[in-house]
Protein backbone atom coordinates (compact mmCIF):
# COMPACT_ATOMS: atom_id res chain seq x y z
CA UNK A 1 0.00 0.00 0.00
CA UNK A 2 1.04 3.56 -0.59
CA UNK A 3 1.24 5.45 2.66
CA UNK A 4 0.34 9.10 2.79
CA UNK A 5 2.99 11.69 3.45
CA UNK A 6 3.36 13.01 7.00
CA UNK A 7 1.72 16.44 6.99
CA UNK A 8 3.68 17.51 10.07
CA UNK A 9 6.99 17.32 8.18
CA UNK A 10 5.94 19.72 5.38
CA UNK A 11 6.77 23.39 5.95
CA UNK A 12 4.62 26.40 5.02
CA UNK A 13 6.63 27.32 1.91
CA UNK A 14 6.30 23.79 0.53
CA UNK A 15 2.57 23.82 1.21
CA UNK A 16 2.17 27.03 -0.80
CA UNK A 17 3.89 25.38 -3.76
CA UNK A 18 1.69 22.30 -3.38
CA UNK A 19 -1.43 24.48 -3.36
CA UNK A 20 -0.30 26.24 -6.52
CA UNK A 21 0.20 22.93 -8.34
CA UNK A 22 -3.17 21.59 -7.20
CA UNK A 23 -5.20 24.74 -7.83
CA UNK A 24 -3.79 25.34 -11.30
CA UNK A 25 -4.32 21.70 -12.30
CA UNK A 26 -7.93 21.57 -11.11
CA UNK A 27 -8.58 24.99 -12.65
CA UNK A 28 -7.22 23.83 -16.01
CA UNK A 29 -9.61 20.87 -16.09
CA UNK A 30 -12.54 22.96 -14.85
CA UNK A 31 -11.83 25.74 -17.35
CA UNK A 32 -11.93 23.27 -20.22
CA UNK A 33 -15.39 22.16 -19.11
CA UNK A 34 -16.48 25.80 -18.94
CA UNK A 35 -15.18 26.88 -22.36
CA UNK A 36 -16.38 23.93 -24.43
CA UNK A 37 -19.95 25.26 -24.81
CA UNK A 38 -18.95 28.45 -26.69
CA UNK A 39 -16.73 26.32 -28.96
CA UNK A 40 -19.55 23.97 -30.00
CA UNK A 41 -20.83 26.11 -32.93
CA UNK A 42 -17.30 26.56 -34.29
CA UNK A 43 -16.59 22.82 -34.05
CA UNK A 44 -19.85 22.01 -35.79
CA UNK A 45 -19.01 24.29 -38.72
CA UNK A 46 -15.38 23.15 -38.90
CA UNK A 47 -16.25 19.46 -39.21
CA UNK A 48 -19.70 19.66 -40.82
CA UNK A 49 -21.56 17.64 -38.18
CA UNK A 50 -25.17 17.93 -37.00
CA UNK A 51 -26.53 18.62 -33.52
CA UNK A 52 -26.73 14.95 -32.56
CA UNK A 53 -23.13 14.33 -33.54
CA UNK A 54 -21.76 17.45 -31.88
CA UNK A 55 -23.41 16.36 -28.63
CA UNK A 56 -20.93 13.47 -28.53
CA UNK A 57 -18.23 16.01 -27.63
CA UNK A 58 -19.83 16.33 -24.20
CA UNK A 59 -21.13 12.77 -23.83
CA UNK A 60 -17.78 11.11 -24.60
CA UNK A 61 -15.98 13.39 -22.16
CA UNK A 62 -18.50 12.70 -19.40
CA UNK A 63 -18.48 8.95 -19.90
CA UNK A 64 -14.69 8.71 -19.86
CA UNK A 65 -14.51 10.95 -16.79
CA UNK A 66 -16.95 8.76 -14.88
CA UNK A 67 -15.38 5.46 -15.85
CA UNK A 68 -11.83 6.62 -15.12
CA UNK A 69 -12.47 8.21 -11.73
CA UNK A 70 -12.52 4.97 -9.73
CA UNK A 71 -9.56 3.59 -11.69
CA UNK A 72 -7.37 6.66 -11.24
CA UNK A 73 -8.32 7.00 -7.58
CA UNK A 74 -7.34 3.38 -6.95
CA UNK A 75 -4.09 3.75 -8.87
CA UNK A 76 -3.20 6.83 -6.83
CA UNK A 77 -3.60 4.86 -3.59
CA UNK A 78 -1.65 1.99 -5.13
CA UNK A 79 1.29 3.81 -6.72
CA UNK A 80 1.20 7.23 -5.08
CA UNK A 81 -0.79 10.42 -5.50
CA UNK A 82 1.99 12.47 -7.11
CA UNK A 83 2.74 10.23 -10.14
CA UNK A 84 -0.95 9.63 -10.87
CA UNK A 85 -1.78 13.34 -10.58
CA UNK A 86 1.04 14.29 -12.95
CA UNK A 87 0.13 11.45 -15.33
CA UNK A 88 -3.39 12.84 -15.62
CA UNK A 89 -2.12 16.38 -16.18
CA UNK A 90 0.08 15.10 -19.02
CA UNK A 91 -2.79 13.07 -20.47
CA UNK A 92 -5.11 16.06 -20.39
CA UNK A 93 -2.54 18.11 -22.29
CA UNK A 94 -2.07 15.31 -24.85
CA UNK A 95 -5.82 15.15 -25.44
CA UNK A 96 -5.95 18.92 -25.88
CA UNK A 97 -3.15 18.84 -28.46
CA UNK A 98 -4.85 16.01 -30.35
CA UNK A 99 -8.11 17.98 -30.58
CA UNK A 100 -6.34 21.12 -31.80
CA UNK A 101 -4.58 19.14 -34.56
CA UNK A 102 -7.61 16.99 -35.48
CA UNK A 103 -8.04 16.35 -39.23
CA UNK A 104 -11.57 15.00 -38.71
CA UNK A 105 -14.34 14.76 -36.13
CA UNK A 106 -13.42 11.22 -35.11
CA UNK A 107 -10.04 12.44 -33.88
CA UNK A 108 -11.79 15.22 -31.96
CA UNK A 109 -13.82 12.59 -30.11
CA UNK A 110 -10.66 10.57 -29.43
CA UNK A 111 -9.04 13.68 -27.96
CA UNK A 112 -12.11 14.36 -25.82
CA UNK A 113 -12.00 10.76 -24.59
CA UNK A 114 -8.36 11.20 -23.54
CA UNK A 115 -9.21 14.51 -21.87
CA UNK A 116 -12.13 12.97 -20.00
CA UNK A 117 -10.15 9.92 -18.94
CA UNK A 118 -7.46 12.21 -17.54
CA UNK A 119 -9.87 14.69 -15.96
CA UNK A 120 -11.43 11.83 -13.99
CA UNK A 121 -8.25 11.55 -11.93
CA UNK A 122 -7.26 15.18 -11.42
CA UNK A 123 -9.71 16.38 -8.76
CA UNK A 124 -9.88 13.25 -6.54
CA UNK A 125 -6.10 12.86 -6.61
CA UNK A 126 -5.62 16.54 -5.79
CA UNK A 127 -8.02 16.11 -2.85
CA UNK A 128 -6.03 13.09 -1.65
CA UNK A 129 -2.81 15.14 -1.80
CA UNK A 130 -4.47 17.67 0.52
CA UNK A 131 -4.92 14.83 3.00
CA UNK A 132 -1.23 13.99 2.68
CA UNK A 133 0.16 17.50 2.99
CA UNK A 134 -2.15 19.40 5.37
CA UNK A 135 -3.26 18.84 8.97
CA UNK A 136 -6.94 18.04 9.64
CA UNK A 137 -7.79 21.55 10.84
CA UNK A 138 -6.76 23.06 7.48
CA UNK A 139 -8.29 20.52 5.10
CA UNK A 140 -11.82 21.94 5.03
CA UNK A 141 -10.53 25.38 4.10
CA UNK A 142 -8.21 24.04 1.40
CA UNK A 143 -10.82 21.74 -0.15
CA UNK A 144 -13.29 24.62 -0.09
CA UNK A 145 -10.81 26.68 -2.10
CA UNK A 146 -10.37 23.81 -4.56
CA UNK A 147 -14.15 23.63 -4.91
CA UNK A 148 -14.23 27.37 -5.56
CA UNK A 149 -11.90 26.97 -8.54
CA UNK A 150 -14.80 25.41 -10.44
CA UNK A 151 -16.88 28.52 -9.82
CA UNK A 152 -14.03 30.76 -10.96
CA UNK A 153 -13.53 28.62 -14.07
CA UNK A 154 -17.19 28.84 -15.04
CA UNK A 155 -17.09 32.59 -14.43
CA UNK A 156 -14.13 33.35 -16.70
CA UNK A 157 -14.45 30.40 -19.08
CA UNK A 158 -17.11 31.76 -21.44
CA UNK A 159 -15.38 35.13 -21.59
CA UNK A 160 -12.00 33.55 -22.40
CA UNK A 161 -13.57 31.31 -25.04
CA UNK A 162 -15.40 34.20 -26.69
CA UNK A 163 -12.23 36.30 -26.89
CA UNK A 164 -10.23 33.43 -28.40
CA UNK A 165 -12.92 32.63 -30.95
CA UNK A 166 -13.01 36.28 -32.02
CA UNK A 167 -9.26 37.01 -32.01
CA UNK A 168 -7.78 33.60 -32.87
CA UNK A 169 -9.53 30.30 -33.67
CA UNK A 170 -11.26 27.41 -31.90
CA UNK A 171 -7.99 25.45 -31.76
CA UNK A 172 -6.55 27.90 -29.23
CA UNK A 173 -9.28 27.00 -26.74
CA UNK A 174 -7.47 23.67 -26.40
CA UNK A 175 -3.89 24.78 -27.10
CA UNK A 176 -4.02 27.10 -24.09
CA UNK A 177 -3.81 24.00 -21.88
CA UNK A 178 -0.34 23.04 -23.12
CA UNK A 179 1.85 25.72 -21.48
CA UNK A 180 -0.21 25.46 -18.30
CA UNK A 181 0.34 21.70 -18.17
CA UNK A 182 4.09 22.09 -18.71
CA UNK A 183 4.33 24.44 -15.72
CA UNK A 184 2.26 22.08 -13.55
CA UNK A 185 4.43 19.10 -14.49
CA UNK A 186 7.65 20.99 -13.78
CA UNK A 187 6.45 22.37 -10.43
CA UNK A 188 4.60 19.21 -9.40
CA UNK A 189 7.63 16.97 -9.86
CA UNK A 190 9.44 19.15 -7.33
CA UNK A 191 6.71 20.27 -4.94
CA UNK A 192 4.27 17.38 -4.44
CA UNK A 193 5.01 14.89 -1.63
CA UNK A 194 6.94 11.87 -2.87
CA UNK A 195 5.11 8.53 -2.57
CA UNK A 196 6.46 5.87 -0.27
CA UNK A 197 7.86 2.81 -1.99
CA UNK A 198 5.31 0.06 -2.49
CA UNK A 199 6.16 -3.60 -2.02
CA UNK A 200 4.29 -6.86 -2.64
CA UNK A 201 1.37 -5.27 -4.47
CA UNK A 202 -1.69 -7.55 -4.67
CA UNK A 203 -3.25 -8.36 -8.06
CA UNK A 204 -5.05 -5.44 -9.66
CA UNK A 205 -8.85 -5.62 -9.53
CA UNK A 206 -9.53 -5.97 -13.26
CA UNK A 207 -12.98 -7.48 -12.74
CA UNK A 208 -14.00 -4.68 -10.40
CA UNK A 209 -12.95 -1.88 -12.74
CA UNK A 210 -14.65 -3.64 -15.67
CA UNK A 211 -17.95 -3.89 -13.78
CA UNK A 212 -17.66 -0.25 -12.68
CA UNK A 213 -17.06 0.83 -16.28
CA UNK A 214 -20.07 -1.11 -17.59
CA UNK A 215 -22.29 0.08 -14.73
CA UNK A 216 -21.44 3.76 -15.11
CA UNK A 217 -21.53 3.70 -18.91
CA UNK A 218 -24.95 2.02 -19.02
CA UNK A 219 -26.26 4.33 -16.30
CA UNK A 220 -25.03 7.43 -18.12
CA UNK A 221 -26.38 6.38 -21.52
CA UNK A 222 -29.64 5.19 -19.98
CA UNK A 223 -30.28 8.49 -18.21
CA UNK A 224 -29.38 10.47 -21.30
CA UNK A 225 -31.79 8.35 -23.41
CA UNK A 226 -34.78 8.66 -21.05
CA UNK A 227 -36.17 11.66 -22.92
CA UNK A 228 -35.59 10.21 -26.38
CA UNK A 229 -38.40 9.03 -28.60
CA UNK A 230 -38.56 6.07 -31.00
CA UNK A 231 -35.33 4.05 -30.66
CA UNK A 232 -34.37 5.73 -27.40
CA UNK A 233 -37.59 4.56 -25.75
CA UNK A 234 -36.62 0.94 -26.34
CA UNK A 235 -32.98 1.35 -25.32
CA UNK A 236 -32.99 3.17 -21.99
CA UNK A 237 -34.88 0.56 -19.89
CA UNK A 238 -32.36 -2.08 -20.92
CA UNK A 239 -29.43 0.21 -20.17
CA UNK A 240 -30.72 1.14 -16.72
CA UNK A 241 -31.53 -2.52 -16.09
CA UNK A 242 -27.97 -3.49 -17.00
CA UNK A 243 -26.67 -0.84 -14.61
CA UNK A 244 -28.86 -2.26 -11.82
CA UNK A 245 -27.67 -5.82 -12.49
CA UNK A 246 -24.08 -4.61 -12.16
CA UNK A 247 -24.63 -3.55 -8.53
CA UNK A 248 -24.82 -7.06 -6.97
CA UNK A 249 -22.14 -8.24 -9.40
CA UNK A 250 -19.87 -5.44 -8.19
CA UNK A 251 -20.53 -6.33 -4.55
CA UNK A 252 -19.64 -9.95 -5.28
CA UNK A 253 -16.49 -9.02 -7.21
CA UNK A 254 -15.25 -6.56 -4.60
CA UNK A 255 -15.88 -8.95 -1.72
CA UNK A 256 -13.46 -11.40 -3.38
CA UNK A 257 -10.79 -8.92 -4.53
CA UNK A 258 -7.52 -8.66 -2.61
CA UNK A 259 -7.37 -4.91 -3.22
CA UNK A 260 -10.82 -3.88 -4.48
CA UNK A 261 -11.23 -0.89 -6.77
CA UNK A 262 -14.28 0.08 -4.64
CA UNK A 263 -13.56 -1.10 -1.08
CA UNK A 264 -16.87 -2.22 0.44
CA UNK A 265 -15.67 -1.16 3.87
CA UNK A 266 -16.02 2.45 2.71
CA UNK A 267 -19.77 1.82 2.99
CA UNK A 268 -19.60 -0.01 6.32
CA UNK A 269 -20.42 3.01 8.50
CA UNK A 270 -23.46 5.26 8.55
CA UNK A 271 -21.24 8.33 8.22
CA UNK A 272 -19.82 7.17 4.89
CA UNK A 273 -23.15 5.96 3.46
CA UNK A 274 -24.80 9.27 4.37
CA UNK A 275 -21.87 11.19 2.91
CA UNK A 276 -22.07 9.43 -0.45
CA UNK A 277 -25.86 9.88 -0.57
CA UNK A 278 -25.29 13.59 0.03
CA UNK A 279 -22.77 13.63 -2.82
CA UNK A 280 -25.57 12.53 -5.18
CA UNK A 281 -27.83 15.21 -3.69
CA UNK A 282 -25.10 17.83 -4.07
CA UNK A 283 -24.69 16.85 -7.71
CA UNK A 284 -28.46 17.12 -8.17
CA UNK A 285 -28.41 20.65 -6.76
CA UNK A 286 -25.38 21.66 -8.81
CA UNK A 287 -26.85 20.27 -12.02
CA UNK A 288 -30.12 22.15 -11.53
CA UNK A 289 -28.43 25.38 -12.59
CA UNK A 290 -28.43 24.15 -16.19
CA UNK A 291 -32.05 25.28 -16.64
CA UNK A 292 -31.75 28.68 -14.94
CA UNK A 293 -30.82 30.49 -18.16
CA UNK A 294 -33.80 28.82 -19.86
CA UNK A 295 -36.07 30.34 -17.21
CA UNK A 296 -34.79 33.81 -18.14
CA UNK A 297 -35.46 33.14 -21.82
CA UNK A 298 -38.99 31.92 -21.09
CA UNK A 299 -39.90 34.54 -18.47
CA UNK A 300 -38.28 37.72 -19.80
CA UNK A 301 -37.67 36.95 -23.49
CA UNK A 302 -33.94 37.31 -22.86
CA UNK A 303 -31.91 36.42 -25.99
CA UNK A 304 -30.39 32.97 -25.56
CA UNK A 305 -26.86 34.23 -26.23
CA UNK A 306 -27.21 36.83 -23.46
CA UNK A 307 -29.00 34.75 -20.81
CA UNK A 308 -25.74 33.30 -19.57
CA UNK A 309 -24.57 36.71 -18.38
CA UNK A 310 -27.39 36.70 -15.79
CA UNK A 311 -25.64 33.78 -14.11
CA UNK A 312 -22.41 35.65 -13.35
CA UNK A 313 -23.64 36.96 -9.95
CA UNK A 314 -24.72 33.41 -9.09
CA UNK A 315 -21.24 32.07 -9.86
CA UNK A 316 -19.65 34.77 -7.70
CA UNK A 317 -21.94 33.88 -4.79
CA UNK A 318 -21.16 30.20 -5.29
CA UNK A 319 -17.40 30.78 -5.09
CA UNK A 320 -17.73 33.02 -2.04
CA UNK A 321 -19.95 30.52 -0.23
CA UNK A 322 -17.59 27.64 -0.99
CA UNK A 323 -14.61 29.48 0.44
CA UNK A 324 -16.50 30.97 3.38
CA UNK A 325 -18.09 27.77 4.63
CA UNK A 326 -14.86 25.88 4.06
CA UNK A 327 -13.34 28.16 6.66
CA UNK A 328 -16.31 27.70 9.01
CA UNK A 329 -16.41 23.91 8.80
CA UNK A 330 -14.37 23.31 11.94
CA UNK A 331 -16.49 25.76 13.93
CA UNK A 332 -19.94 24.69 12.71
CA UNK A 333 -19.42 21.01 11.98
CA UNK A 334 -20.28 19.03 8.85
CA UNK A 335 -23.94 18.42 9.75
CA UNK A 336 -24.68 22.11 10.27
CA UNK A 337 -22.87 23.15 7.08
CA UNK A 338 -24.77 20.66 4.91
CA UNK A 339 -28.10 21.57 6.54
CA UNK A 340 -27.43 25.23 5.81
CA UNK A 341 -26.40 24.50 2.23
CA UNK A 342 -29.42 22.38 1.37
CA UNK A 343 -31.72 24.87 3.17
CA UNK A 344 -30.41 27.67 0.95
CA UNK A 345 -30.84 25.47 -2.13
CA UNK A 346 -34.41 24.65 -1.07
CA UNK A 347 -35.26 28.33 -0.71
CA UNK A 348 -33.73 29.22 -4.07
CA UNK A 349 -35.40 26.39 -5.99
CA UNK A 350 -38.77 27.06 -4.34
CA UNK A 351 -38.56 30.77 -5.13
CA UNK A 352 -37.69 30.00 -8.74
CA UNK A 353 -40.68 27.66 -8.91
CA UNK A 354 -43.14 30.14 -7.39
CA UNK A 355 -42.06 33.59 -8.57
CA UNK A 356 -39.71 33.24 -11.55
CA UNK A 357 -41.74 35.72 -13.64
CA UNK A 358 -40.60 38.64 -11.46
CA UNK A 359 -37.08 39.64 -12.41
CA UNK A 360 -35.82 40.71 -9.00
CA UNK A 361 -37.13 37.52 -7.38
CA UNK A 362 -35.55 35.54 -10.20
CA UNK A 363 -32.18 37.13 -9.44
CA UNK A 364 -32.58 36.49 -5.69
CA UNK A 365 -33.37 32.86 -6.46
CA UNK A 366 -30.26 32.47 -8.63
CA UNK A 367 -28.09 33.96 -5.88
CA UNK A 368 -29.56 31.55 -3.32
CA UNK A 369 -29.03 28.57 -5.61
CA UNK A 370 -25.47 29.67 -6.33
CA UNK A 371 -24.68 30.07 -2.63
CA UNK A 372 -26.29 26.73 -1.79
CA UNK A 373 -24.33 24.92 -4.49
CA UNK A 374 -21.12 26.50 -3.23
CA UNK A 375 -21.79 25.19 0.27
CA UNK A 376 -22.82 21.61 -0.57
CA UNK A 377 -20.30 21.03 -3.39
CA UNK A 378 -17.47 22.77 -1.55
CA UNK A 379 -15.02 20.99 0.68
CA UNK A 380 -17.32 19.69 3.43
CA UNK A 381 -18.13 16.24 2.04
CA UNK A 382 -14.55 15.73 0.87
CA UNK A 383 -13.30 16.67 4.33
CA UNK A 384 -15.68 14.19 5.97
CA UNK A 385 -14.35 11.46 3.68
CA UNK A 386 -10.73 12.35 4.45
CA UNK A 387 -11.60 12.25 8.14
CA UNK A 388 -13.14 8.77 7.92
CA UNK A 389 -10.67 6.77 5.79
CA UNK A 390 -7.09 5.59 6.10
CA UNK A 391 -4.35 7.41 4.15
CA UNK A 392 -4.02 4.57 1.62
CA UNK A 393 -7.78 4.80 0.87
CA UNK A 394 -7.96 8.54 0.24
CA UNK A 395 -7.72 8.40 -3.54
CA UNK A 396 -10.51 5.82 -3.95
CA UNK A 397 -12.69 7.52 -1.35
CA UNK A 398 -12.36 10.91 -3.07
CA UNK A 399 -13.04 9.30 -6.43
CA UNK A 400 -16.37 8.00 -5.11
CA UNK A 401 -17.25 11.57 -4.11
CA UNK A 402 -16.74 12.63 -7.73
CA UNK A 403 -18.81 9.72 -9.00
CA UNK A 404 -21.67 10.54 -6.63
CA UNK A 405 -21.74 14.18 -7.73
CA UNK A 406 -21.58 13.18 -11.39
CA UNK A 407 -24.49 10.74 -10.99
CA UNK A 408 -26.51 13.51 -9.34
CA UNK A 409 -25.74 15.77 -12.29
CA UNK A 410 -26.98 13.16 -14.75
CA UNK A 411 -30.15 12.51 -12.75
CA UNK A 412 -31.17 16.15 -12.45
CA UNK A 413 -30.88 16.83 -16.19
CA UNK A 414 -33.07 13.84 -17.04
CA UNK A 415 -35.57 14.30 -14.20
CA UNK A 416 -36.09 18.07 -14.41
CA UNK A 417 -36.13 18.00 -18.20
CA UNK A 418 -38.83 15.33 -18.22
CA UNK A 419 -40.86 17.20 -15.60
CA UNK A 420 -40.64 20.47 -17.51
CA UNK A 421 -41.81 18.81 -20.73
CA UNK A 422 -44.62 16.85 -19.05
CA UNK A 423 -45.93 20.06 -17.46
CA UNK A 424 -46.32 21.71 -20.86
CA UNK A 425 -42.85 23.14 -21.34
CA UNK A 426 -42.17 26.87 -21.28
CA UNK A 427 -42.06 28.84 -18.05
CA UNK A 428 -44.78 26.83 -16.32
CA UNK A 429 -42.99 23.56 -16.97
CA UNK A 430 -39.73 24.93 -15.61
CA UNK A 431 -41.49 26.25 -12.50
CA UNK A 432 -42.90 22.78 -11.80
CA UNK A 433 -39.45 21.27 -12.29
CA UNK A 434 -37.86 23.62 -9.76
CA UNK A 435 -40.59 22.99 -7.20
CA UNK A 436 -39.79 19.28 -7.44
CA UNK A 437 -36.08 20.13 -7.13
CA UNK A 438 -36.91 22.01 -3.92
CA UNK A 439 -38.58 18.85 -2.62
CA UNK A 440 -35.45 16.82 -3.38
CA UNK A 441 -33.37 19.37 -1.47
CA UNK A 442 -35.68 19.00 1.55
CA UNK A 443 -35.04 15.26 1.40
CA UNK A 444 -31.30 15.95 1.39
CA UNK A 445 -31.74 18.12 4.49
CA UNK A 446 -33.21 15.10 6.26
CA UNK A 447 -30.35 12.90 5.04
CA UNK A 448 -27.88 15.48 6.39
CA UNK A 449 -29.15 14.79 9.89
CA UNK A 450 -27.41 11.43 9.64
CA UNK A 451 -23.98 13.09 9.73
CA UNK A 452 -22.13 13.39 12.99
CA UNK A 453 -22.18 16.97 14.34
CA UNK A 454 -18.38 17.15 14.44
CA UNK A 455 -15.49 15.60 12.55
CA UNK A 456 -13.68 12.82 14.37
CA UNK A 457 -10.39 14.74 14.06
Q: Gist?
A:
The protein has 457 residues and is mainly α.
Task: List descriptors.
457 residues; Growth Hormone, Chain: A; 3 domains; disordered N terminus
Describe the structure.
The chain is globular, with a radius of gyration of 21 Å. It has 19 helices and no strands. The N terminus is likely disordered. It folds into three domains: 200 residues, Growth Hormone, Chain: A (Up-down Bundle), CATH 1.20.1250.20; 51 residues; 196 residues, Up-down Bundle (Growth Hormone, Chain: A). Helix 11 runs antiparallel to helix 19, helix 15 packs antiparallel against helix 16 and helix 15 packs antiparallel against helix 19. It is mainly α.
Rounded mean pLDDT is: 78
- Provide the CATH topology of the largest domain: Growth Hormone, Chain: A
According to DSSP, the number of beta strands is 0
Helix fraction by DSSP (H/I, runs of at least 4): over 70%
Total domains: 3
Model regions low in confidence, pLDDT < 50 over at least 5 residues:
1-5
**CATH architecture identity of the largest domain:** Up-down Bundle
Cα-to-Cα separation, first versus last residue: 23 Å
| CATH-level-4 superfamily name of the largest domain | MFS general substrate transporter like domains
* Order of SSEs: HHHHHHHHHHHHHHHHHHH
What is the global morphology?
globular
Largest sheet: number of strands, sense, barrel closure:
none
Topology:
Elements: H1 12-47, H2 51-54, H3 56-79, H4 81-100, H5 105-133, H6 136-167, H7 171-175, H8 177-191, H9 206-225, H10 231-256, H11 270-287, H12 292-300, H13 304-307, H14 312-332, H15 334-355, H16 359-376, H17 380-388, H18 394-422, H19 426-448
Helix pairs in contact: 1-5, 1-6, 1-8, 3-4, 3-5, 3-9, 3-18, 4-5, 4-8, 5-18, 6-14, 6-17, 9-10, 11-16, 11-17, 11-18, 11-19, 12-19, 14-15, 14-16, 15-16, 15-19, 17-18, 18-19
Amino acid sequence: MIAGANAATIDAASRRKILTVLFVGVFMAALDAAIIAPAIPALRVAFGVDNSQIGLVTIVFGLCTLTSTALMASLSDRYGHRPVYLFNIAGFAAGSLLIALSPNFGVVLLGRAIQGFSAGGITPTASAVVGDAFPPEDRGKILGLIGATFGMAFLVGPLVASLMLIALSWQWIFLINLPVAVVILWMGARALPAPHAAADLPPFDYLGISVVAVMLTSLTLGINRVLDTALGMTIWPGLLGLSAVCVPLLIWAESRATQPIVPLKLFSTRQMVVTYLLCVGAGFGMGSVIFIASVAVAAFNTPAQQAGFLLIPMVIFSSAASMGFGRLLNQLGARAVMLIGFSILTAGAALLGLAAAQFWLYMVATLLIGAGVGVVVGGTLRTVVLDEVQPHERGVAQGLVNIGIAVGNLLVVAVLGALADSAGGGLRGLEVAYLVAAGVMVLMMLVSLGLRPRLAS
